[in-house]
Amino acid sequence: MATLADVARRAGVSTATVSRIINNSPKPVADALRERVLAAVAELQFVPNANAQQLARADRTAVGVIVHDVSDPYFAEITRGLQRVATDHGRLVIICNSYRDPERELAYVDLLHAHQTAAIVLAGSGYVDAPITARLDGKLRLYQSTGGRVSVIGRHEHAGDAVVPENEPGGYLAGDALYRLGHTAIGVIAGPRHLTTTTDRLAGLRRAAKEHGHRLGARQVVYADFDRNGGAAAAATLLAQNPGLTAIAALNDSMAVGALACLRERGIDVPGEMSLIGFDDMPISVDVTPPLSTVRLPLEEIGVRAMTLALREGDRDGPLVEHAAAKLVLRGSTGAPRG
After folding, report:
1. How far apart are CA 66 and CA 78, in angstroms?
2. Which residues are paired to 279 by β-bridges?
3. What is the pLDDT of residue 54?
4. Same-domain check for residues 81 and 177
């Protein structure tokens, strides 16, 4: 088993320098030197002394949570669950908004490591980007090697505890519901293409289309930001590209609300002329007119489960992966197509 001295020799630095880098000391270290030491750590598969890890962990009281945007209703619900568990355990929660910027997310992991948080929870989607994913995984593994706990929400490539929402099955439920109602001309308002949440939900819709003897062509899918304005703009594009459209599936409720506003402005009756279904079942889903059909995820419960995993003490045989089921909720915004 490699020692601190082995890492120092491989990197050509002192043991004190290695210690400062792996423990994210606030003392400045040149980037090139840091990269050399981290490369040596990876090559030698160095793992710090378990007793030192436990000692460090005992002094940690804060927990870091990295979300894409806490003002987004999806993350607000998840964060409520995360904070509830953290408060019950006497922990301070540090919330970091990455705004779906992977570089910012990487920087936050370093920052939370430097502040010696007890755990980090990645509450946002994974990225369809192999280099970014590898860098993030490396930083999280280094954080874990110094005593930190990690849990993630969603499909990430990091090998650790995870709560995985059933995004692909949920996408299937939405598509299957529309096809069973008799729709064949269906448009999709997808989220950002670089997020695994988008690709998984869209994969479920494509599976439903194939099962019903149809396919979703390129003109039937418009990618947009996961917010109201993105949904409104994408709905306008779908209508322009697909004159015969009878149904729209939005991959989150915020985008569905934007699509509903777009349809209302154009005098298109929902569900008489156009059916609309969302995803997540945000509280606003029952407040719009007509009430929004959607796919429900237990978002607050997902937050509770992710923080519980992050704060679980004791040795583990391996990473724990829990799944959060999706459920179809049909309301007033969907119906059979005319004719």
Report:
1. 11
2. none
3. 46
4. no
Note whether 45 and 226 are within 8 A (CB).
no
Tell me which residue has tokens 């030197």.
33
What is the H or E stretch that residue 168 is in?
helix 167-180
Residue range 201-230, pLDDT digits in tens: 999 999 999 999 999 999 999 999 999 999
* CATH of residue 16: 1.10.260.40
**Domain enclosing residue 255, as ranges:** 167-296
Is the pLDDT at 3 greater than 80? The verdict is: yes
Judge if 171 and 201 occupy the same domain. yes
Task: Look at residue 316 in the predicted model and tell me its pLDDT.
Answer: 63
Question: How far is the C-alpha of 73 from the C-alpha of 70, rounded, in Å?
Answer: 7
| Tokens describing residue 77 | 């619900």
CATH label of the domain that carries residue 287: 3.40.50.2300
Q: How many CB atoms lie within 10 A of CB 25?
A: 13
Report yes or no on 246 lying in a domain.
yes
Q: In what order do the strands lie in the sheet with 186-190?
A: 221-223, 186-190, 247-250, 275-277
- 335 lies in some domain: no
Confidence of residue 315 (pLDDT cuts 50, 70, 90): low
Say whether both 27 and 116 belong to one domain: no
Q: Using 50, 70 and 90 to split pLDDT, how confident is the model at 52?
A: low
**Any bridge partners for residue 194, and if so which?**
none
Percentage of the chain modeled with pLDDT above 90: 70
- Tell whether 267 and 319 lie within a shared domain: no
pTM of structure = 0.81
